[in-house]
Amino acid sequence: MEKICYNAFGDKIRVKIVEEIVKNGELTLADLAKKLELVNTIIVYHLEILKRENLLLHRYQGRKVLYCLNISQIEKGLLAIKSLCGGIDE
Questions:
Q1: Strand pairing partners for 61?
Q2: Which of 40, 51, 53, 78 qualifies as a cystine partner to 8, CB 3.0-4.6 A?
Q3: Exposure pattern of 53-72 as b/e (b: 16+ CB <10 Å)?
């Protein structure tokens, strides 16, 4: 079974970051800081954890860095959770 990134969602800020990206699509650090009303350094810390767990992807647009969800990794995580729960059907 693949490693599951339990720690990635262990903080409400990381959950809020993911929620904002789900709602808005790609976002920059500045976008996230404004939407969550947090300083950049806090956002960067949590983005790094999400990237390390392979839940976020990023791309450059000029000098900006845009963050989006790594859908394939999230799907793998959901499948792993489903198997841990005994294969609950939808």
A1: 64
A2: 53
A3: bbbbbeeeeeeeebbebbee
Residue 41: C-alpha distances to residues 4, 58, 71 (Å): 26, 17, 25
Q: What is the mean pLDDT of residues 42-51?
A: 95
Euclidean distance between CA atoms 55 and 21, whole angstroms: 11
Whether residue 1 has pLDDT greater than 50: no
pLDDT of the residue at 63? 95
How many beta carbons lie within 10 A of that of residue 21, not counting itself?
Answer: 21
| Averaged pLDDT, 40-52 | 95
Cα separation, 15 vs 66, in Å, equals 18
What amino acid occupies position 78? L
List the alpha helices (DSSP H) in 1-90: 12-24, 29-36, 40-52, 71-84
